[in-house]
Design a protein that fits this description.
The chain is of the alpha+beta class. It is built from two helices and ten strands. Helices cover about 25% and strands about 45% of the residues. Strand 3 and strand 4 form a beta hairpin.
Length: about 140
């Protein structure tokens, strides 16, 4: 069993986070899952949602987009499209994105080519709003 748990959150643009943590909760496509030190190795796809972890007794929240997670006994690597820490989210911008997505979805049917893309945009906006309201 590993003595510590390292977490890396990597986006195409940057290393969003790298450091020692106590635990992490990840929004997997098959459901949310938690990882502690010594976890069995696994690969999972990551869904749009809230990722959170505990570092030095404090819970830190991120809004994340789709990607992949690799878990080993001592390290979690998350390769993700986007990751925004709660205190870096522009809530007003997220509210505007939510309103825009709702308006566009109301004008579409499920058969429209852009329907799923707009539904995902709405989900991302809602997650960003919810995560922005959480304190570090």
């Amino acid at each position: 069993m590993a003595d510590e748990l390292m977490l890396e959150i990597v986006t195409p643009e940057k290393m969003a986070f790298s450091g020692k943590i106590e635990e992490v909760t990840i929004p997997g496509t098959e459901g949310e899952f938690g990882v502690l030190r010594g976890h069995e190795a696994l690969l999972s796809s990551v869904d749009i949602g809230e990722l959170n972890f505990v570092k030095e007794g404090k819970k830190i929240y991120y809004s994340v987009n789709t990607g992949y997670a690799e878990v080993t006994s001592g390290k979690v690597t998350i390769l993700i499209e986007t990751a925004e820490r709660s205190d870096h989210i522009d809530k007003d911008r997220a509210l505007k994105a939510k309103d825009n997505a709702e308006t566009r979805l109301a004008q579409m049917t499920k058969e429209d080519v852009e329907y799923e893309m707009m539904r995902a945009a709405l989900t991302r906006a809602i997650v960003r709003i919810n995560v922005a309201e959480k304190k570090i």
